[in-house]
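Quick note —
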Amino acid sequence: MIAVAGWSRGDAAELAVGARFSLEGASIAALVHEASRPVRVDSFADAHGPIAEEAQQLRIRSSVGCPIVVEGRLWGVIAASSKSAAPFPPDTESQIAEFTELVATAIANAEAQARANRLTSEQAALRRVATLVAREASHAEVFSAIADEVGQLLGAEDVRIYRYEDDHSVVVVGASGYDDFLPVGSRHPLGGTNSASLVFRTGQAARIDDYETAATGSIGDQARSSGIRSIVAAPILVEGRLWGAIAVGTGRLERLPPETEGRLGQFTELAATAIANTESHARADQLADEQAALRRVATLVAEASPLEDVFAKIAEEVAAALGDVDCALWRDEGDGTASAVAVWGASVVAGVRVGTRIALDGESVTALVLREGRPWRIDDYSGATGTVAERAREIGIRSAVGCPIMAGGRIWGVMAVASSVALSFPPETESRIAQFSELVATAIANIEARAEVHRLAEEQAALRRVATLVAEGAGPAAVFDAAAAEMERLLDAEQVSLGRYEPGDEITMVAHRGPHTWRLPPGSRLSHEGENVTAMVRQTERPARMESFDDATGPIARIVRAMGVRSSVGAPIVVDGRLWGVVTARWSAPDSPPADTEDRMAQFAQLLDTAIANADSHDQLAASRARLLTEGDEARRRVVRDLHDGAQRRLVNTIITLKLVQRALREKDAQADALVGDALAEAQKSNEELRELAHGILPAVLSRGLRAAIDEVVMGRHLPVSVDVPAERFPAEIEASAYFVVAEALTNVVKHAHASRADVTASVQDGMLRVEVQDDGIGGADPNGHGLVGIYDRVTALGGRLKIESLASGGMLVTATLPVSAS
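Predicted structure written out below.
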């Protein structure tokens, strides 16, 4: 109860006007409030309560009170009090009642006028705000005006307008009143018992009349510390959704009037209209801006601008379209990392540059998009794991959204936007980003198509240059060096070498381009044991790469470390269906070679097949011819030596003996017969040695055909051998070469293979005689041995080929193909 008027006789003390009293206990005001009729108290001696205690201090003995009823509601009380011991006359109540009616009329008139004035003020305030809304004033201007108007109309010391966020927080967008309480632009978590949280949970108006004891949560604590005692809040609904709230508060003891919620509702509707209008215009402006941005980027793509320019422009346009965000484009490197190809925004630029490479471990938008193949968002990086999440926290990133960039039916990379504000992105963000990612995909497809055409043209030109060298009869060294030089240029490599695989774990360098050539000069032969690309390619017959040689072992690893090589990529060179060698490219830069390096090298190596085969055949043929000349000279020297040391010596002895016989016959010496016998024996031995020498040069049995010659070879071996050779005749040089192939192969089987059997087959297909010797032993034939090199030279000189291979099932297979024409 509040004392609104008072009078006392003389200097007697009275209740202070404006004083507030509780209606507890026994007092005229409390009794009238309870009974809603006139009441009297003839003695306060035993009364209790705040008003009774005040009456006792003023030595009041008795009192009479009558209710003041205004338009049917109990408004207050008129009380008359006396210090006299005599009670009030019996008609006191009726006399006071006459005055209460007059007071009620006055109050009703005053309230009616106040309502009229309030309605006029409200309508004027609403018109002022509506005018701002109609002329499309900014949200900040509208919200500030609403806060001022509401504060003045409701007589509230503080007004706050909140916008609810997706992360269960509120942002203050308008305010009037206390300077130290929730400033405009500040963000606060929801939770606890306070007006903003209650409206958020219920979607309805809420009031708290005692903030000192009832309010909790961050917002409640700040309101209490600012001196607010009670608050009423009403929701702002925009197109059916809860957008925010308007809250009014006071630090006075009296509660805010009951009609406060209803009066606030009028202003929340105006706020909702302003917001809806602004959002509608914003959506239209946003669509127009995005279409303009998309046209600008599409123009760049259509003009075939450099890809890095397109990427940079798209990142800039996306960041601008989404408003105060960072944007980055990431290319998937295919090895568990992604590289930045464009960045835009202050916080991203602070931690990321074009070329920055990130690991795709843990939880990050980029990693999740590439892993799942669909758009992804992270609204709070505080609990995310992985390298990128840690980096994001370091540079202040709070939330992010990413969409895949599809190119050529595969995920090429990711377009990601990030914000340093603790605010999740709107739901439509993914679809907005997707429009730009499609342009990125188009640009990539166009660029890649042009790059592919250019690359193919370069490779074809390179192949033509190498093929021209081969056609002009250039030496193998020049051809190999040219192939290495072309590969070095195509790959932008620092070093390129070509190596030919040798038996065992060895390789011969046939070409080397780049620095440190002296460490791996052409012609050098070394082991490829240990960890290196050369060994990996030979083992798998597929391209391979090594990113680091720091801990690698083996001779090649030691050499490339000494050359400062950081990474190496190798591709197999296959000639005539067999692994011939390897082409190896090396770089000393810390960055890894592009992901498509292996494919490019393998494709170019395949195209080099014919050129290398021709050059290698030329090289091998030249070597074979040189060996044939050498072998021919050696064979002639051997025949001369054998004739001199064998048959010629015996023939000389025979001649000498015959001369002795001639002398003995003249002298009638009895030793003549014995001397004739000696001469005959020497002549016979000479004949045998000449026959053996002739057989070694070309067996006489070959005159009966290849089948008869091979049957004779097999008969002389202590090894079961099956023979399947046609009886038809072939040119003499073909039969001789086939014979020596079989003879040498069986000799190796007997000497080295520890075999239990062997098979000799021959057949004619497409004008070629194919001779095969296969055993079930342990192998051991040395292709570089004198005998096998000799038959290789024979076969090659006739335009044929010799192949020696170990079988997976065990044993060796020697195959010779020789050109024939049936006779």
